[in-house]
Amino acid sequence: MENIIYGIHPVAEAISEGNMPEKVLLQKGLKGGNFSALFREIRDKDIPYQVVPVEKLNKVTRSNHQGVVAYVSRVIYWKVENVITRAWDSGETPLLLILDGITDVRNFGAIARTAECAGVHALVVAQKNSAAVNAVSIKTSAGALTRIPVCKENNLPETISFLKECGLKIIATTDRSKQKIYDADLRCPAAIILGSEDKGISKACLKLADIEVAIPMEGKTGSLNVSVAAGIVLFEALRKRRFSKEF
Questions:
Q1: Whole-number pLDDT of residue 66
Q2: Containing structural domain, residue 38
């Protein structure tokens, strides 16, 4: 089952404490001062919401929901600056994975599993247009989503700019690049961007990249599944980082 909270005050309190819902269901036609204040907060914080008939809410819970039901994450989201600090304090070179527009929960779970195995310090996703951390994604990740930090950001381009200011190299994986992943220096502090299979990396994120790299392809199939691509890129980064320590 999904984790849910319901009622105007409990949902408002969760938001004020920084526990941002994945999505909020709001009863159609609901009015009142408390509801209006909550609705403003939801819009101001860019939290995904849907206006639905009361019957929909009653199917989710039979409790006194007061016309508001919120789906909350099963993990606590991290601040990206805390992830970087923790990596440096541990004597490790930061490696982050930015997921731009990846909405399929199974792909998300598979990527998280691979990232955790490859030693990635955090997944960075957008508040909107991103796969949810739910029962399906956690199961697909083999529980990795409960172990690897996840940073949910309102604005990915702004987050990428911040990472650049922190000294991380931004590496975008695209099929149009002439530079191959095997020729890139992945030993430095870095954040790797992966885009969706249909749209790729957004222009706003791509223009902030320091370098673009591609996975070499030999067959006739046009592209790889994004979770497979993640495995190739991340374990190449792990290989190079280990190699640099050994020699």
A1: 93
A2: 3-72
- Do 193 and 134 fall into the same domain? yes
CATH value at residue 15: 3.30.1330.30
| Judgement on whether residues 90 and 7 belong to the same structural domain of the protein | no
Are the C-beta atoms of residues 144 and 116 closer than 8 Å to each other? yes
Checking DSSP bridges between strand 3-6 and strand 68-72, what pairing results, if any? antiparallel
pTM over 0.85: no
The answer to whether 174 and 209 have CB atoms below 8 angstroms apart is no
Same domain, 104 and 66: no
Q: Find the distance separating the first CA and the last CA of the chain, reported in whole Å.
A: 49
The pLDDT of residue 245 = 61
Q: Pairing between strand 68-72 and 23-27?
A: antiparallel
Percent of the chain topping pLDDT 90: 74
Q: Which tens digit of pLDDT belongs to each residue from 114-149? A: 999 999 999 999 988 899 888 889 999 999 999 999
> Does 89 lie in the same domain as 125?
yes
**What mean pLDDT is reported for the chain?**
92
